[in-house]
Inverse folding.
């Protein structure tokens, strides 16, 4: 099976989920002997990223550069990638289900008259075909979906469906091949304006590998620097449950939960968080959950992998001390 | 800030797509078609009929037990038995008196609680289905739009202004700001359900109140999926007694639905004396009674919700007609609290309103005098007969359960008159006993997470969602009262009576503060009703927000 992975970058920095897509491709390839995986790096001035990607276990890295691909546009990416797909004839095209992919991938698939199974959470290799699993009805059911008809098949995976750190390194560096594409300015019907972040949104918690989250147990805004220091020492970001952001002690972009962000970091440390459902749905996908709470009946302990029934004002300083010594 | 609003002109504007509003719209569309087909002049159009619904979809904010008396539905949709989403016909009903550990089955089910011939339904599904018929009939239903203000012209109601969309939490316009529409109509029909926000102000401003103030009960409900065999579909049980004490009006219900579903809940009159009483907690404890636990054990919670019920009955009916305006359904107090049924009256009142409206439009006369025909029709119909027969029912419980039952017995044999007619009643919010230095409040109920739940967990299962960045829709006139007076006199009952944990008193270094978690709100209106100082004004938030009562 020939698998083509479309990676994502901005300003020559990876979107972290790209490594998850590589892992997905490598795993699917491993189940099908004789498969080869190639990765596409698309943009302008991204040869460095392509060379980085080539260190992974891949058959080759395809570098797709063009002036008109420097800034992302749906037309530019769909037209360029259509040429890449037509040229390389993959069976399976894998993408990460990012906002950008949601914007151009359906257009890309449709331009080839092909279907796309989006936002998958996993797959199963059956005897003669692959079944992709996606959620329906807000996660209440899972659906098995497979393709009928000829390839190429387009699939996007949900962030967190695969572990980006499991990407296999290559025994040798893969070849980086430049692919030229034809793009005319008239074909691009939109003009990207200045990128901006809402002034409040200084941090994207979904990209942080470690999160230290505080809840009502922190009691007062004066205590937040304690948690912030711990987060920094751990190499993580500070997050919070709703009551903290409601009070204005932390900005809304730090909120985790059903009315905040959904995250799946490697480590989620919940300090003084009770674990109401509204919060838990935003973090239960975390790889490892550690919870500290005074109340032994706090629901957070039901989802935590490790829990301490204790006083965060004793334990935060203790943890901080240990980490400072290192 | 003077705002330029887009204006639309309608013939009839119906506020609320519940059973009353939708029955009115459907019947009106039919009558309009008949009128035109018979060459009536002036010609009328269904395109001039608008229905507003603040929920995300039709049915999203509909909640009830419910056991439906189909007599009105049969008039509205004669083949309802084949086409309506009726869950199951009632085939067994029972009444129980509960003590803390026992359940005493009453040897005879009291006549008002006999339900043979009736159907267990989800009022949300019913509304969805009716909504489909209404749209098929050519009427526009605008979901996600609320009626925020009435438009008055002189003595008349001239229409409704919908809510502004896209204001941030400080009230400032955001990028997507759209001012509310000015919807003018020849006739505005208020079908907002219990404690409608437009209705409340209209009744107060124009002095439309009935002999008695309206009084309300709160119903806290959960929908469960239980293990097979735990309950028979079609079984309807009502309970009195535990966990309510004999000074309180209310009782529980358990209805067996198809596919192992159970609708259960506890109704409590919002006129209890203990300001720290928590209706949600009482319902959770109700589930721990062996009689109920046996049914639920091993099952799982599907959905949660809460809503108030107008129980004042006949003497609380306001004046239901003004120049250019009618009030129907729960908003008009058309509910039989003895039988616990209001959906049939809501539907029938919608139909009677439709008849009144067509006559008014034909005659080109939408004055109060012309529209007063609605009240006459209600009085002369089975709505009037039924409500008159229980006209003193709810009031008789103001001195406790046993005296209430005694009065009821006498009313039963005197066609509703009883020992005192009319029996007066005070508004519920005037019935609290002051704390008078009572000790600290008991700890709040946590729930075990399996059979019983805390309010936050339940709120999650109501599917309630609001745009976070919008002004708080719960207007508290003066929070100094909360922090200085109420805390001492009543202990801030809003923290207890709200079934969605919206209100919290936070202790801080500087003192105390009221925190309002408005996005938890399930639109039950309990706070507007039960606040002892009547300083909470519930206004509709941005349309689309609120619970998602699918299947409720």
């Amino acid at each position: 099976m020939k698998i083509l992975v479309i990676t994502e970058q901005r300003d020559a920095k990876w979107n972290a989920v790209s490594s998850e897509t590589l892992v997905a491709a490598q795993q699917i390839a491993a189940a099908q002997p004789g498969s080869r995986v190639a990765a596409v790096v698309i943009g302008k001035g991204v040869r460095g990223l392509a060379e980085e990607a080539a260190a992974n276990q891949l058959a080759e890295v395809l570098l797709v550069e063009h002036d008109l691909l420097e800034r992302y546009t749906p037309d530019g990416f769909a037209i360029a990638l259509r040429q890449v797909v037509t040229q390389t004839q993959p069976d399976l095209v894998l993408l990460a289900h990012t906002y950008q992919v949601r914007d151009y991938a359906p257009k890309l698939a449709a331009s080839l008259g092909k279907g796309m199974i989006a936002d998958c959470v996993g797959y199963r290799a059956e005897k003669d075909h692959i079944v992709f699993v996606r959620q329906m009805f807000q996660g209440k059911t899972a659906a098995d979906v497979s393709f009928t008809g000829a390839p190429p098949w387009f699939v996007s995976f949900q962030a967190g469906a695969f572990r980006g750190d499991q990407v296999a390194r290559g025994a040798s560096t893969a070849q980086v091949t430049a692919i030229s594409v034809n793009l005319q300015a008239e074909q691009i019907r939109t003009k990207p304006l200045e990128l901006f972040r809402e002034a409040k949104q200084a941090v994207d918690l979904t990209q942080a590998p470690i999160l230290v989250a505080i809840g009502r147990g922190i009691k007062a805004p004066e205590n937040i620097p304690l948690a912030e220091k711990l987060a920094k020492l751990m190499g993580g970001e500070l997050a919070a449950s709703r009551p903290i952001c409601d009070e204005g002690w932390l900005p809304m972009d730090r909120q985790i939960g059903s009315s905040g962000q959904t995250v799946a970091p490697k480590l989620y440390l919940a300090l003084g968080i009770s674990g109401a459902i509204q919060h838990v749905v935003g973090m239960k996908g975390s790889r490892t959950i550690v919870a500290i709470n005074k109340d032994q009946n706090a629901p957070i302990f039901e989802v935590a992998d490790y829990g301490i029934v204790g006083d965060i004002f004793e334990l935060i300083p203790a943890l901080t001390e240990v980490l400072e010594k290192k | 800030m003077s705002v330029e609003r887009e204006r639309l002109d309608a013939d009839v504007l119906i506020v609320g797509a519940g059973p009353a509003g939708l029955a009115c719209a459907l019947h009106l569309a039919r009558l309009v078609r008949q009128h035109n087909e018979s060459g009536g002049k002036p010609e009328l159009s269904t395109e001039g009929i608008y229905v507003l619904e603040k929920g995300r979809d039709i049915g999203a904010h509909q909640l009830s037990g419910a056991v439906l008396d189909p007599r009105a539905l049969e008039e509205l949709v004669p083949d309802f038995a084949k086409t309506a989403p009726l869950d199951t016909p009632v085939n067994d009903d029972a009444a129980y008196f509960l003590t803390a550990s026992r359940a005493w089955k009453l040897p005879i089910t009291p006549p008002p609680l006999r339900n043979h011939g009736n159907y267990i339904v989800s009022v949300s599904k019913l509304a969805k289905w009716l909504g489909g018929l209404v749209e098929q009939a050519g009427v526009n239903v605008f979901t996600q739009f609320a009626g925020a203000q009435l438009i008055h012209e002189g003595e008349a109601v001239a229409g409704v202004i919908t809510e502004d969309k896209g204001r941030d939490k400080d009230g400032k316009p955001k990028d997507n700001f759209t001012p509310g529409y000015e919807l003018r109509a020849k006739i505005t029909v208020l079908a907002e359900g219990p404690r409608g926000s437009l209705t409340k102000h209209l009744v107060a401003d124009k002095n439309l109140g009935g002999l008695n103030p309206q009084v309300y009960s709160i119903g806290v409900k959960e929908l469960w999926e239980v293990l097979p065999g735990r309950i028979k579909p079609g079984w309807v049980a009502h309970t009195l007694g535990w966990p309510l004490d004999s000074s309180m009006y209310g009782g529980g219900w358990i209805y067996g639905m198809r596919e192992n579903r159970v609708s259960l809940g506890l109704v409590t009159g919002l006129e209890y004396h203990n300001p720290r009483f928590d209706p949600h907690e009482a319902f959770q404890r109700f589930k721990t009674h062996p009689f109920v636990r046996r049914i639920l054990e091993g099952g799982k919670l599907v959905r949660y919700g809460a809503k108030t019920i107008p129980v004042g009955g006949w003497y609380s009916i306001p004046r239901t007609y003004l120049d250019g305006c009618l009030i129907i359904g729960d908003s008009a107090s058309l509910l039989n609290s003895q039988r616990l049924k209001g959906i049939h009256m809501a539907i029938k009142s919608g139909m009677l309103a439709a008849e009144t409206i067509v006559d008014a439009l034909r005659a080109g006369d939408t004055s109060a005098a012309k529209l007063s025909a609605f009240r006459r029709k209600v009085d002369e119909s089975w709505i009037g007969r039924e409500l008159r027969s229980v006209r003193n029912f709810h009031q008789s419980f103001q001195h406790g359960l046993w005296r209430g039952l005694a009065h009821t017995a006498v009313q039963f044999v005197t066609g509703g008159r009883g020992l005192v007619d009319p029996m007066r009643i005070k508004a519920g919010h005037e019935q609290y006993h002051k704390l008078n230095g009572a000790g600290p409040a008991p700890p709040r109920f946590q729930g075990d997470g399996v059979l019983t739940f805390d309010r936050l967990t339940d709120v999650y299962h109501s599917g309630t969602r609001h745009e976070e960045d919008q002004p708080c829709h719960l207007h508290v006139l003066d929070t100094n009262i909360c922090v200085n007076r109420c805390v001492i006199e009543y202990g801030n009952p809003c923290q207890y009576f709200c079934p969605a944990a919206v209100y919290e008193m936070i202790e801080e270094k500087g003192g105390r503060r009221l925190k309002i978690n408005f996005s938890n709100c399930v639109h039950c209106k309990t706070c507007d009703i039960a606040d002892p100082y009547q300083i909470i004004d519930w206004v509709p938030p941005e349309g689309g927000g609120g619970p998602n009562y699918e299947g409720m």
Summary: The mean pLDDT of chain B is 95. Chain B is about 25% helix and 25% strand.
